[in-house]
């Protein structure tokens, strides 16, 4: 699930982490199944647009058990200048809290593109959160782009052995606003580092009760091999 933290709509795509099966607080007697739907003016994931700088409609279904196990699926339209029109992710994970300030999570994610070229890949990831700071790593364990030697139309062909490092800072601001600062670095196994890149971004978000959560976001890549123009986009998310 290419999402970011709900609290600040902060990790690439809609809200997130990246994509993840994050630990979900489980109140006794609460429904373990939840759903979400969102709209973004630009689907950004790890600094790169997945929609050719166009809008996306996204949604998912999640299950969270009181043990810390979670699983779900998530879908979004994409535009890679070919016949690839949508992304379908499936993920599972386990997480928990060590104390009030420290938590952790592990996840496994499969990113699928059923109607397009061979882009599917899968990652395992781990992250830890201490108060307002989150840091993590993701490792590609499978990729259909194993024969890739470069970047095609700005979209990397993910292969086994790729590493992605990420960090974010999330703060609560006055007037029920949330601030998220984020950065990441992609270390690709192919092309001798010729396609590695770093990126950074920031989000301001506000929850609006039954109307969902709205965000104003900025993302940028720090390498001109890619589209390194600043990306300003807005997002809306509603959970059920």
TrEMBL record:
Write the record's keywords in alphabetical order, separated by commas.
Signal
Q: Which top-level group of life is the source organism from?
A: Bacteria
Q: Extract the signal peptide range.
A: 1-27
Instruction: Please identify the protein, giving its name as recorded.
Output: TIGR02001 family outer membrane protein
Organism in which the protein naturally occurs:
Allochromatium palmeri
Its lineage opens with: Bacteria, Pseudomonadati, Pseudomonadota, Gammaproteobacteria, Chromatiales
């Amino acid at each position: 699930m290419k999402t970011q933290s709900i609290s600040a709509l902060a990790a690439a795509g809609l809200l997130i982490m990246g994509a993840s099966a994050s630990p979900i607080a489980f109140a006794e007697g609460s429904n373990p199944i939840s759903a979400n739907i969102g709209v973004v003016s630009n689907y950004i994931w790890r600094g790169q647009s997945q929609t050719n700088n166009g809008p996306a409609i996204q949604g998912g279904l999640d299950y969270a058990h009181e043990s810390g196990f979670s699983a779900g699926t998530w879908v979004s339209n994409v535009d890679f200048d070919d016949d690839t029109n949508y992304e379908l992710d499936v993920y599972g994970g386990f997480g928990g809290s060590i104390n009030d300030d420290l938590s952790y999570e592990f996840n496994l994610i499969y990113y699928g593109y059923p109607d397009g070229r061979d882009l599917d890949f899968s990652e395992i990831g781990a992250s830890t959160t201490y108060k307002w700071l989150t840091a993590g790593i993701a490792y590609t364990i499978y990729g259909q782009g194993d024969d890739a030697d470069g970047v095609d139309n700005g979209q990397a062909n993910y292969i086994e052995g790729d590493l992605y490092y990420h960090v974010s800072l999330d703060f609560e601001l006055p007037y029920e606003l949330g601030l998220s600062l984020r950065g990441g670095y992609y270390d690709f196994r192919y092309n001798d580092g010729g396609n590695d890149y770093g990126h950074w971004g920031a989000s301001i978000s506000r929850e609006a009760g039954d109307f969902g959560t709205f965000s104003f976001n900025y993302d940028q890549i720090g390498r001109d091999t890619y589209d390194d123009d600043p990306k300003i986009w807005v997002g809306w998310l509603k959970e059920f």
